[in-house]
From TrEMBL:
Matching InterPro entries: GH3 (IPR004993), GH3_C (IPR055378), GH3_M (IPR055377)
Biological source species: Ziziphus jujuba (Chinese jujube)
Keyword Lyase (UniProt): no
Family recorded in the similarity comment: Belongs to the IAA-amido conjugating enzyme family.
Domain GH3 middle: 314-394
Pfam family, one: GH3_M
Domain GH3 C-terminal: 409-524
Protein name as it appears in the record: Indole-3-acetic acid-amido synthetase GH3.10 isoform X2
Keywords: Ligase
PANTHER family: GH3 DOMAIN-CONTAINING PROTEIN, INDOLE-3-ACETIC ACID-AMIDO SYNTHETASE GH3.10
Length: 544
Protein backbone atom coordinates (compact mmCIF):
# COMPACT_ATOMS: atom_id res chain seq x y z
CA UNK A 1 0.00 0.00 0.00
CA UNK A 2 1.37 3.42 -0.81
CA UNK A 3 1.91 6.20 1.69
CA UNK A 4 -1.22 8.10 0.78
CA UNK A 5 -3.46 5.07 1.31
CA UNK A 6 -1.88 4.39 4.68
CA UNK A 7 -2.37 8.04 5.62
CA UNK A 8 -5.55 9.05 3.80
CA UNK A 9 -6.11 12.18 5.88
CA UNK A 10 -2.58 13.40 5.28
CA UNK A 11 -2.94 12.63 1.59
CA UNK A 12 -6.14 14.65 1.31
CA UNK A 13 -4.59 17.40 3.36
CA UNK A 14 -1.67 17.65 0.93
CA UNK A 15 -4.01 17.77 -2.06
CA UNK A 16 -6.13 20.37 -0.25
CA UNK A 17 -3.14 22.54 0.50
CA UNK A 18 -1.83 22.31 -3.07
CA UNK A 19 -5.22 23.31 -4.51
CA UNK A 20 -5.40 26.09 -1.96
CA UNK A 21 -1.99 27.37 -2.96
CA UNK A 22 -2.87 27.22 -6.66
CA UNK A 23 -6.22 28.90 -6.22
CA UNK A 24 -5.62 31.63 -3.66
CA UNK A 25 -3.77 34.80 -4.54
CA UNK A 26 -1.64 36.65 -2.01
CA UNK A 27 -2.97 39.65 -0.18
CA UNK A 28 -0.15 42.17 -0.50
CA UNK A 29 1.64 43.16 2.68
CA UNK A 30 -0.74 44.96 5.00
CA UNK A 31 -3.19 45.68 2.16
CA UNK A 32 -6.69 45.57 3.44
CA UNK A 33 -8.42 48.67 2.17
CA UNK A 34 -11.41 47.10 0.39
CA UNK A 35 -11.65 44.18 2.75
CA UNK A 36 -11.56 46.12 5.97
CA UNK A 37 -13.73 48.96 4.72
CA UNK A 38 -16.43 46.35 4.16
CA UNK A 39 -15.86 44.97 7.64
CA UNK A 40 -16.13 48.38 9.19
CA UNK A 41 -19.55 48.78 7.61
CA UNK A 42 -20.52 45.33 8.82
CA UNK A 43 -20.57 43.64 5.41
CA UNK A 44 -18.04 40.94 6.29
CA UNK A 45 -18.52 37.61 4.56
CA UNK A 46 -16.11 35.19 6.18
CA UNK A 47 -15.90 31.70 4.81
CA UNK A 48 -14.72 30.54 8.23
CA UNK A 49 -17.91 30.04 10.15
CA UNK A 50 -17.46 30.98 13.75
CA UNK A 51 -19.65 31.65 16.71
CA UNK A 52 -17.26 34.26 18.02
CA UNK A 53 -17.94 37.96 17.97
CA UNK A 54 -15.82 39.95 15.61
CA UNK A 55 -14.00 43.06 16.60
CA UNK A 56 -11.66 45.07 14.47
CA UNK A 57 -8.08 45.74 15.47
CA UNK A 58 -6.07 48.71 14.42
CA UNK A 59 -2.61 47.90 13.11
CA UNK A 60 0.01 50.58 12.70
CA UNK A 61 2.03 50.53 9.52
CA UNK A 62 5.70 51.49 9.37
CA UNK A 63 4.55 54.87 8.13
CA UNK A 64 2.25 55.36 11.08
CA UNK A 65 -1.02 55.01 9.14
CA UNK A 66 -3.61 52.75 10.69
CA UNK A 67 -5.54 49.89 9.19
CA UNK A 68 -8.04 47.37 10.47
CA UNK A 69 -7.96 43.59 10.74
CA UNK A 70 -10.47 41.24 12.37
CA UNK A 71 -10.02 40.18 15.98
CA UNK A 72 -12.06 37.32 17.43
CA UNK A 73 -12.33 35.40 20.66
CA UNK A 74 -9.87 32.98 19.03
CA UNK A 75 -7.32 35.82 18.88
CA UNK A 76 -7.62 36.38 22.64
CA UNK A 77 -7.49 32.63 23.28
CA UNK A 78 -4.26 32.17 21.32
CA UNK A 79 -2.82 35.13 23.24
CA UNK A 80 -3.63 33.34 26.48
CA UNK A 81 -2.15 30.10 25.11
CA UNK A 82 1.16 31.64 24.07
CA UNK A 83 1.45 33.63 27.32
CA UNK A 84 0.94 30.48 29.39
CA UNK A 85 3.39 28.53 27.27
CA UNK A 86 6.04 31.23 27.50
CA UNK A 87 5.46 31.59 31.26
CA UNK A 88 6.02 27.85 31.70
CA UNK A 89 9.37 28.00 29.86
CA UNK A 90 10.44 31.10 31.79
CA UNK A 91 9.61 29.58 35.14
CA UNK A 92 11.99 26.68 34.45
CA UNK A 93 14.90 29.09 34.21
CA UNK A 94 13.70 31.90 36.48
CA UNK A 95 11.21 30.52 38.97
CA UNK A 96 8.97 33.11 40.57
CA UNK A 97 6.95 33.03 43.78
CA UNK A 98 3.30 32.04 43.38
CA UNK A 99 0.53 34.53 44.09
CA UNK A 100 2.78 37.58 43.73
CA UNK A 101 2.76 40.56 41.39
CA UNK A 102 3.95 41.65 37.95
CA UNK A 103 4.76 45.29 37.24
CA UNK A 104 3.19 45.56 33.80
CA UNK A 105 3.40 48.75 31.75
CA UNK A 106 0.30 48.05 29.69
CA UNK A 107 -2.12 50.50 28.12
CA UNK A 108 -5.52 50.27 26.50
CA UNK A 109 -6.75 52.86 24.07
CA UNK A 110 -10.35 53.80 23.39
CA UNK A 111 -12.66 51.32 21.68
CA UNK A 112 -15.43 52.56 19.41
CA UNK A 113 -18.34 51.11 17.44
CA UNK A 114 -18.25 51.11 13.66
CA UNK A 115 -21.37 51.87 11.65
CA UNK A 116 -21.73 48.12 11.15
CA UNK A 117 -21.80 47.66 14.92
CA UNK A 118 -18.34 46.14 15.39
CA UNK A 119 -16.12 47.16 18.26
CA UNK A 120 -12.83 48.61 16.99
CA UNK A 121 -9.64 49.23 18.95
CA UNK A 122 -6.05 48.03 19.12
CA UNK A 123 -5.41 44.30 19.60
CA UNK A 124 -3.92 44.85 23.04
CA UNK A 125 -6.99 46.90 24.02
CA UNK A 126 -9.30 44.01 23.07
CA UNK A 127 -7.07 41.58 24.93
CA UNK A 128 -6.86 43.58 28.18
CA UNK A 129 -10.65 43.87 28.14
CA UNK A 130 -11.11 40.13 27.53
CA UNK A 131 -11.89 37.27 29.86
CA UNK A 132 -8.58 35.70 28.78
CA UNK A 133 -6.55 38.51 30.36
CA UNK A 134 -8.16 37.78 33.76
CA UNK A 135 -7.72 34.05 33.20
CA UNK A 136 -4.01 34.52 32.45
CA UNK A 137 -3.49 36.05 35.87
CA UNK A 138 -5.34 33.19 37.57
CA UNK A 139 -3.66 30.43 35.56
CA UNK A 140 -0.14 31.79 36.00
CA UNK A 141 -0.96 32.76 39.60
CA UNK A 142 0.66 36.16 39.25
CA UNK A 143 -1.23 39.41 39.22
CA UNK A 144 -0.70 42.75 37.62
CA UNK A 145 -0.11 45.61 40.10
CA UNK A 146 -2.64 47.92 38.45
CA UNK A 147 -6.41 47.51 38.27
CA UNK A 148 -8.37 47.61 35.01
CA UNK A 149 -9.32 51.28 35.59
CA UNK A 150 -5.63 52.22 35.34
CA UNK A 151 -4.89 50.06 32.28
CA UNK A 152 -7.85 51.53 30.41
CA UNK A 153 -7.38 55.05 31.82
CA UNK A 154 -6.86 56.47 28.33
CA UNK A 155 -4.11 58.99 29.05
CA UNK A 156 -0.74 57.22 28.89
CA UNK A 157 1.03 59.73 31.14
CA UNK A 158 -1.52 59.31 33.92
CA UNK A 159 -1.58 55.53 33.45
CA UNK A 160 2.23 55.39 33.62
CA UNK A 161 2.20 57.39 36.86
CA UNK A 162 -0.30 54.99 38.44
CA UNK A 163 1.58 51.89 37.19
CA UNK A 164 4.72 53.27 38.82
CA UNK A 165 2.94 54.25 42.02
CA UNK A 166 1.30 50.85 42.49
CA UNK A 167 4.48 49.08 41.37
CA UNK A 168 6.37 50.90 44.12
CA UNK A 169 3.56 50.33 46.61
CA UNK A 170 3.87 46.56 45.99
CA UNK A 171 7.65 46.77 45.57
CA UNK A 172 8.50 43.67 47.66
CA UNK A 173 5.96 41.57 45.81
CA UNK A 174 7.02 42.35 42.25
CA UNK A 175 8.47 39.22 40.60
CA UNK A 176 9.23 40.72 37.20
CA UNK A 177 8.80 43.88 35.14
CA UNK A 178 7.21 43.71 31.73
CA UNK A 179 5.53 45.49 28.79
CA UNK A 180 4.54 44.43 25.28
CA UNK A 181 7.34 46.37 23.56
CA UNK A 182 10.54 47.48 25.36
CA UNK A 183 9.87 51.10 24.45
CA UNK A 184 7.11 51.33 27.11
CA UNK A 185 9.43 50.25 29.94
CA UNK A 186 12.07 52.78 28.90
CA UNK A 187 9.53 55.61 28.71
CA UNK A 188 8.05 54.60 32.10
CA UNK A 189 11.42 54.70 33.84
CA UNK A 190 12.33 57.98 32.21
CA UNK A 191 9.09 59.33 33.70
CA UNK A 192 10.07 57.85 37.09
CA UNK A 193 13.32 59.87 36.89
CA UNK A 194 11.15 63.00 36.66
CA UNK A 195 8.40 62.15 39.16
CA UNK A 196 9.98 60.08 41.93
CA UNK A 197 9.55 62.78 44.57
CA UNK A 198 5.86 63.12 43.85
CA UNK A 199 5.47 59.32 43.85
CA UNK A 200 7.18 59.09 47.24
CA UNK A 201 5.00 61.85 48.62
CA UNK A 202 1.85 59.98 47.50
CA UNK A 203 3.06 56.78 49.19
CA UNK A 204 4.04 58.69 52.35
CA UNK A 205 0.63 60.37 52.71
CA UNK A 206 -1.61 57.75 51.09
CA UNK A 207 -2.73 60.35 48.51
CA UNK A 208 -2.86 60.53 44.75
CA UNK A 209 -1.31 63.35 42.73
CA UNK A 210 -3.74 65.88 41.24
CA UNK A 211 -2.25 65.06 37.83
CA UNK A 212 -4.57 62.01 37.84
CA UNK A 213 -8.01 63.12 36.68
CA UNK A 214 -10.43 60.30 35.86
CA UNK A 215 -12.54 59.71 38.99
CA UNK A 216 -12.73 55.95 38.35
CA UNK A 217 -8.96 55.69 38.07
CA UNK A 218 -8.45 57.79 41.22
CA UNK A 219 -10.89 55.67 43.20
CA UNK A 220 -9.39 52.37 41.99
CA UNK A 221 -5.85 53.44 42.97
CA UNK A 222 -6.85 54.90 46.33
CA UNK A 223 -8.88 51.75 47.12
CA UNK A 224 -5.61 49.83 46.85
CA UNK A 225 -3.35 52.31 48.68
CA UNK A 226 -5.67 52.40 51.65
CA UNK A 227 -3.24 53.79 54.22
CA UNK A 228 -0.16 56.07 54.26
CA UNK A 229 3.18 54.23 54.30
CA UNK A 230 5.92 56.65 55.48
CA UNK A 231 8.57 53.97 56.05
CA UNK A 232 8.21 52.58 52.51
CA UNK A 233 8.26 56.13 51.11
CA UNK A 234 11.51 56.95 52.97
CA UNK A 235 13.12 53.72 51.76
CA UNK A 236 12.19 54.46 48.12
CA UNK A 237 13.31 58.07 48.49
CA UNK A 238 16.71 56.96 49.79
CA UNK A 239 17.07 54.48 46.91
CA UNK A 240 16.12 57.14 44.34
CA UNK A 241 18.72 59.57 45.72
CA UNK A 242 21.38 56.87 45.42
CA UNK A 243 20.17 55.96 41.93
CA UNK A 244 20.31 59.59 40.84
CA UNK A 245 24.02 59.64 41.70
CA UNK A 246 24.67 56.71 39.33
CA UNK A 247 22.43 58.01 36.54
CA UNK A 248 19.71 55.47 37.47
CA UNK A 249 21.90 52.46 36.71
CA UNK A 250 20.30 49.31 38.18
CA UNK A 251 16.98 51.03 38.91
CA UNK A 252 14.96 47.80 38.61
CA UNK A 253 16.80 45.63 41.18
CA UNK A 254 17.18 48.57 43.53
CA UNK A 255 13.49 49.49 43.63
CA UNK A 256 12.09 46.00 43.09
CA UNK A 257 14.47 43.79 45.07
CA UNK A 258 12.60 40.54 44.36
CA UNK A 259 12.36 41.05 40.58
CA UNK A 260 13.91 38.10 38.75
CA UNK A 261 14.03 39.54 35.22
CA UNK A 262 12.74 42.15 32.77
CA UNK A 263 10.50 40.75 30.05
CA UNK A 264 9.44 42.42 26.81
CA UNK A 265 9.83 42.36 23.02
CA UNK A 266 13.39 43.56 22.56
CA UNK A 267 14.10 42.40 19.03
CA UNK A 268 13.51 44.14 15.69
CA UNK A 269 12.63 47.81 16.00
CA UNK A 270 12.99 47.59 19.80
CA UNK A 271 16.73 46.85 19.59
CA UNK A 272 17.71 50.54 19.86
CA UNK A 273 16.16 50.67 23.37
CA UNK A 274 18.21 47.72 24.64
CA UNK A 275 21.12 49.80 25.85
CA UNK A 276 18.90 51.93 28.06
CA UNK A 277 16.97 48.88 29.25
CA UNK A 278 20.22 47.14 30.23
CA UNK A 279 21.24 50.28 32.09
CA UNK A 280 18.01 50.34 34.10
CA UNK A 281 18.07 46.57 34.67
CA UNK A 282 21.61 46.42 36.08
CA UNK A 283 22.52 42.79 36.64
CA UNK A 284 19.01 41.41 36.05
CA UNK A 285 18.52 39.21 32.98
CA UNK A 286 16.60 40.62 30.03
CA UNK A 287 14.18 38.08 28.61
CA UNK A 288 12.98 38.62 25.08
CA UNK A 289 9.23 38.13 24.64
CA UNK A 290 7.43 36.24 21.89
CA UNK A 291 6.84 37.01 18.25
CA UNK A 292 3.41 37.92 17.02
CA UNK A 293 1.27 40.50 15.34
CA UNK A 294 -2.27 41.75 15.53
CA UNK A 295 -3.08 39.35 12.71
CA UNK A 296 -1.75 36.21 14.43
CA UNK A 297 0.71 34.98 17.02
CA UNK A 298 3.69 33.37 15.35
CA UNK A 299 6.35 31.96 17.65
CA UNK A 300 7.43 31.52 21.23
CA UNK A 301 10.82 32.05 22.89
CA UNK A 302 11.63 28.58 24.24
CA UNK A 303 15.02 29.55 25.63
CA UNK A 304 14.51 32.54 27.93
CA UNK A 305 18.09 32.38 29.23
CA UNK A 306 19.46 33.51 25.84
CA UNK A 307 20.37 37.19 25.52
CA UNK A 308 17.85 39.09 23.36
CA UNK A 309 20.41 39.37 20.53
CA UNK A 310 20.38 35.55 20.14
CA UNK A 311 16.72 34.80 20.68
CA UNK A 312 14.74 32.63 18.27
CA UNK A 313 10.99 32.03 18.07
CA UNK A 314 9.61 28.50 17.62
CA UNK A 315 6.60 28.70 15.30
CA UNK A 316 3.37 27.33 16.78
CA UNK A 317 1.88 25.63 13.71
CA UNK A 318 -1.68 25.57 15.04
CA UNK A 319 -2.02 29.34 15.40
CA UNK A 320 -2.43 29.98 11.67
CA UNK A 321 -1.58 28.25 8.41
CA UNK A 322 1.95 29.47 7.76
CA UNK A 323 3.64 29.76 4.39
CA UNK A 324 7.09 31.12 3.67
CA UNK A 325 8.28 33.05 0.60
CA UNK A 326 12.02 32.36 0.13
CA UNK A 327 13.90 35.64 -0.23
CA UNK A 328 17.27 36.15 -1.86
CA UNK A 329 19.21 39.36 -1.47
CA UNK A 330 19.35 40.76 -4.95
CA UNK A 331 22.43 40.89 -7.15
CA UNK A 332 24.01 44.17 -6.15
CA UNK A 333 24.59 45.21 -9.79
CA UNK A 334 21.06 44.55 -10.90
CA UNK A 335 19.19 47.82 -10.67
CA UNK A 336 16.14 46.76 -12.59
CA UNK A 337 14.65 44.92 -9.63
CA UNK A 338 12.35 47.28 -7.80
CA UNK A 339 12.21 45.34 -4.56
CA UNK A 340 15.04 44.71 -2.14
CA UNK A 341 14.78 40.89 -2.44
CA UNK A 342 14.20 38.36 -5.19
CA UNK A 343 11.38 35.98 -4.30
CA UNK A 344 10.85 32.28 -4.94
CA UNK A 345 7.58 30.33 -4.82
CA UNK A 346 6.04 30.04 -1.33
CA UNK A 347 6.57 26.83 0.60
CA UNK A 348 4.79 25.33 3.61
CA UNK A 349 6.29 25.31 7.08
CA UNK A 350 7.47 21.69 6.73
CA UNK A 351 9.83 22.59 3.85
CA UNK A 352 11.79 25.56 5.20
CA UNK A 353 15.58 25.32 5.34
CA UNK A 354 18.08 26.44 7.96
CA UNK A 355 19.90 29.65 7.05
CA UNK A 356 17.33 30.75 4.46
CA UNK A 357 15.47 34.05 4.75
CA UNK A 358 11.70 34.16 4.19
CA UNK A 359 8.74 36.46 4.28
CA UNK A 360 5.89 35.06 6.37
CA UNK A 361 2.45 34.54 4.80
CA UNK A 362 -0.53 33.89 7.05
CA UNK A 363 -3.92 32.31 6.60
CA UNK A 364 -5.66 33.01 9.87
CA UNK A 365 -8.65 31.75 11.82
CA UNK A 366 -10.02 35.29 11.70
CA UNK A 367 -10.41 35.12 7.92
CA UNK A 368 -7.23 36.54 6.37
CA UNK A 369 -6.15 34.53 3.34
CA UNK A 370 -2.51 34.23 2.25
CA UNK A 371 -1.80 37.52 3.92
CA UNK A 372 1.74 38.85 3.58
CA UNK A 373 2.92 40.02 6.94
CA UNK A 374 5.87 41.99 5.59
CA UNK A 375 8.37 40.61 8.13
CA UNK A 376 11.66 39.03 7.05
CA UNK A 377 12.75 36.07 9.18
CA UNK A 378 15.58 33.56 8.99
CA UNK A 379 15.32 29.90 9.96
CA UNK A 380 17.85 29.33 12.73
CA UNK A 381 17.02 25.69 13.56
CA UNK A 382 14.17 23.40 14.51
CA UNK A 383 12.34 22.41 17.67
CA UNK A 384 10.52 19.08 17.30
CA UNK A 385 10.16 19.75 13.59
CA UNK A 386 8.85 23.29 13.85
CA UNK A 387 11.18 26.04 12.64
CA UNK A 388 12.85 28.43 15.05
CA UNK A 389 12.97 31.89 13.50
CA UNK A 390 15.29 34.84 13.87
CA UNK A 391 13.45 38.09 13.34
CA UNK A 392 15.47 40.04 10.73
CA UNK A 393 13.50 43.19 9.86
CA UNK A 394 10.36 44.63 8.31
CA UNK A 395 10.55 43.84 4.64
CA UNK A 396 9.69 47.23 3.24
CA UNK A 397 12.55 49.33 1.98
CA UNK A 398 12.62 52.33 4.14
CA UNK A 399 15.30 54.58 2.77
CA UNK A 400 15.65 55.00 -0.94
CA UNK A 401 16.38 57.98 -3.18
CA UNK A 402 17.20 56.30 -6.48
CA UNK A 403 19.05 52.99 -6.89
CA UNK A 404 19.95 52.79 -3.19
CA UNK A 405 18.01 50.42 -0.95
CA UNK A 406 18.33 50.41 2.81
CA UNK A 407 16.15 48.56 5.26
CA UNK A 408 15.23 49.28 8.85
CA UNK A 409 18.05 46.96 9.92
CA UNK A 410 20.64 48.78 7.77
CA UNK A 411 19.56 52.07 9.31
CA UNK A 412 19.73 50.63 12.83
CA UNK A 413 23.30 49.43 12.27
CA UNK A 414 24.37 52.78 10.85
CA UNK A 415 22.81 54.72 13.74
CA UNK A 416 24.43 52.35 16.23
CA UNK A 417 27.85 53.07 14.71
CA UNK A 418 27.31 56.80 14.60
CA UNK A 419 26.03 56.97 18.16
CA UNK A 420 29.01 55.04 19.58
CA UNK A 421 30.85 58.35 19.51
CA UNK A 422 28.25 59.81 21.91
CA UNK A 423 29.00 57.46 24.78
CA UNK A 424 32.55 58.84 25.05
CA UNK A 425 31.03 62.24 25.88
CA UNK A 426 28.50 61.11 28.47
CA UNK A 427 25.61 61.75 26.12
CA UNK A 428 23.07 59.24 24.87
CA UNK A 429 20.74 58.79 21.96
CA UNK A 430 17.13 58.91 23.15
CA UNK A 431 15.44 58.07 19.85
CA UNK A 432 15.82 58.48 16.09
CA UNK A 433 14.03 58.41 12.79
CA UNK A 434 14.85 59.20 9.17
CA UNK A 435 13.51 60.56 5.91
CA UNK A 436 14.66 60.32 2.30
CA UNK A 437 14.47 63.87 0.93
CA UNK A 438 13.77 63.57 -2.78
CA UNK A 439 12.29 67.04 -3.15
CA UNK A 440 15.56 68.94 -2.93
CA UNK A 441 18.23 68.00 -5.47
CA UNK A 442 20.33 65.98 -5.14
CA UNK A 443 18.11 63.77 -2.97
CA UNK A 444 19.67 62.70 0.31
CA UNK A 445 19.00 61.00 3.62
CA UNK A 446 18.06 62.97 6.73
CA UNK A 447 18.51 61.31 10.12
CA UNK A 448 16.85 62.94 13.13
CA UNK A 449 18.36 62.39 16.57
CA UNK A 450 17.12 63.33 20.01
CA UNK A 451 20.03 63.36 22.45
CA UNK A 452 20.25 63.51 26.24
CA UNK A 453 23.30 65.29 27.66
CA UNK A 454 25.70 67.94 26.39
CA UNK A 455 27.78 67.23 23.34
CA UNK A 456 30.28 69.14 21.29
CA UNK A 457 29.34 70.11 17.73
CA UNK A 458 32.61 68.66 16.40
CA UNK A 459 31.61 65.25 17.74
CA UNK A 460 28.14 65.52 16.19
CA UNK A 461 29.76 66.43 12.89
CA UNK A 462 31.83 63.26 13.25
CA UNK A 463 28.72 61.17 14.03
CA UNK A 464 27.08 62.49 10.88
CA UNK A 465 30.03 61.66 8.64
CA UNK A 466 30.43 58.25 10.29
CA UNK A 467 26.80 57.36 9.59
CA UNK A 468 27.03 58.39 5.95
CA UNK A 469 30.16 56.30 5.48
CA UNK A 470 28.57 53.31 7.24
CA UNK A 471 25.80 52.65 4.68
CA UNK A 472 27.28 49.74 2.74
CA UNK A 473 24.48 49.27 0.20
CA UNK A 474 26.16 49.27 -3.20
CA UNK A 475 23.53 51.54 -4.77
CA UNK A 476 24.05 54.08 -2.01
CA UNK A 477 27.84 54.01 -2.14
CA UNK A 478 27.88 54.39 -5.95
CA UNK A 479 25.32 57.20 -5.84
CA UNK A 480 27.21 59.04 -3.13
CA UNK A 481 30.45 58.75 -5.10
CA UNK A 482 28.80 60.09 -8.24
CA UNK A 483 26.94 62.73 -6.14
CA UNK A 484 23.55 61.62 -7.45
CA UNK A 485 22.75 61.32 -3.75
CA UNK A 486 23.81 64.29 -1.63
CA UNK A 487 25.58 64.23 1.76
CA UNK A 488 23.65 62.75 4.64
CA UNK A 489 22.12 65.32 6.95
CA UNK A 490 21.98 64.87 10.71
CA UNK A 491 19.30 66.98 12.38
CA UNK A 492 19.35 67.26 16.15
CA UNK A 493 15.89 67.80 17.59
CA UNK A 494 15.13 69.36 20.95
CA UNK A 495 14.44 67.29 24.03
CA UNK A 496 10.86 65.95 24.13
CA UNK A 497 10.38 65.84 20.34
CA UNK A 498 9.81 62.08 20.22
CA UNK A 499 7.30 62.40 23.08
CA UNK A 500 5.41 64.83 20.80
CA UNK A 501 5.46 62.19 18.07
CA UNK A 502 4.14 59.61 20.51
CA UNK A 503 1.40 62.06 21.58
CA UNK A 504 0.48 62.55 17.94
CA UNK A 505 0.08 58.77 17.45
CA UNK A 506 -1.91 58.39 20.65
CA UNK A 507 -4.18 61.27 19.61
CA UNK A 508 -4.86 59.29 16.42
CA UNK A 509 -6.00 56.25 18.36
CA UNK A 510 -2.77 54.25 18.88
CA UNK A 511 -2.11 52.58 22.22
CA UNK A 512 1.23 52.93 23.94
CA UNK A 513 1.35 49.14 24.35
CA UNK A 514 1.78 48.70 20.60
CA UNK A 515 3.68 51.87 19.77
CA UNK A 516 6.82 51.61 17.65
CA UNK A 517 8.69 54.76 16.62
CA UNK A 518 8.56 54.89 12.80
CA UNK A 519 12.18 54.55 11.74
CA UNK A 520 11.55 56.29 8.45
CA UNK A 521 8.75 58.65 7.67
CA UNK A 522 7.11 60.52 4.81
CA UNK A 523 4.22 61.50 7.04
CA UNK A 524 3.91 65.27 6.68
CA UNK A 525 2.59 65.78 10.22
CA UNK A 526 5.59 63.98 11.73
CA UNK A 527 8.00 65.80 9.42
CA UNK A 528 6.50 69.13 10.48
CA UNK A 529 7.07 68.25 14.15
CA UNK A 530 10.61 67.04 13.46
CA UNK A 531 11.61 70.04 11.37
CA UNK A 532 10.00 72.51 13.74
CA UNK A 533 11.93 71.00 16.66
CA UNK A 534 15.30 70.82 14.85
CA UNK A 535 17.90 72.83 16.74
CA UNK A 536 21.10 71.90 14.89
CA UNK A 537 21.96 70.54 11.46
CA UNK A 538 25.12 68.80 10.24
CA UNK A 539 26.11 67.67 6.73
CA UNK A 540 28.32 64.64 6.18
CA UNK A 541 31.84 65.11 4.90
CA UNK A 542 32.23 61.49 3.81
CA UNK A 543 32.94 61.23 0.08
CA UNK A 544 34.18 64.90 0.00
P1 LIG B 1 1.40 45.05 15.70
O1 LIG B 1 0.51 44.21 14.89
O2 LIG B 1 1.20 46.52 15.55
O3 LIG B 1 1.41 44.67 17.16
O4 LIG B 1 2.89 44.79 15.21
C1 LIG B 1 3.32 43.51 14.79
C2 LIG B 1 4.72 43.65 14.25
O5 LIG B 1 5.63 43.94 15.33
C3 LIG B 1 5.25 42.38 13.62
O6 LIG B 1 4.82 42.21 12.30
C4 LIG B 1 6.74 42.60 13.74
O7 LIG B 1 7.21 43.43 12.71
C5 LIG B 1 6.87 43.32 15.08
N1 LIG B 1 7.13 42.32 16.16
C6 LIG B 1 6.26 41.65 16.91
N2 LIG B 1 6.87 40.82 17.76
C7 LIG B 1 8.19 40.95 17.53
C8 LIG B 1 9.36 40.36 18.07
N3 LIG B 1 9.33 39.48 19.07
N4 LIG B 1 10.54 40.74 17.56
C9 LIG B 1 10.61 41.67 16.58
N5 LIG B 1 9.56 42.27 16.04
C10 LIG B 1 8.35 41.90 16.50
Amino acid sequence: MDWEHQNPRVGWLCIGITLYQLGTPFIPCRFRAFYTENCRWGHCSYTHSTTYNYSLSKVGTTEGRQKYVPFTRHSAQTTLQIFRLAAAYRSRVYPTREGKRILEFIYSSKQFKTKGGLTAGTATTHYYASQEFKLKQEKTNSFTCSPQEVISGGDYKQTTYCHLLLGLFFSDQVEFVTSTFAYSIVQAFSSLEDHWQELCSDIRQGTLSSRINPPKMRKAVLDIMVSPNPSLASKIEESCKELQRVDWFGLVPKLWPNAKYVYSIMTGSMQPYMKKLRHYSGNLPLVSADYGSTESWIGVNLDPSLPPEDVTFAVIPTFSYFEFIPLYRQNKDCNSVLDDFIEDAPIPLSQVKIGQEYEIVLTTFTGLYRYRLGDVVEVAGFHNGTPKLNFICRRKLILTVNIDKNTEKDLQMVVERGSQLLSKSNAELVDFTSHADTVNQPGHYIIYWEIKGQIDDTILQHCCTEMDASFVDHGYVVSRRTTSIGPLELRIVESGTFKKILDCFIANGSALSQFKTPRCTRNQVLLRILNFCTIKTFRSRAYD
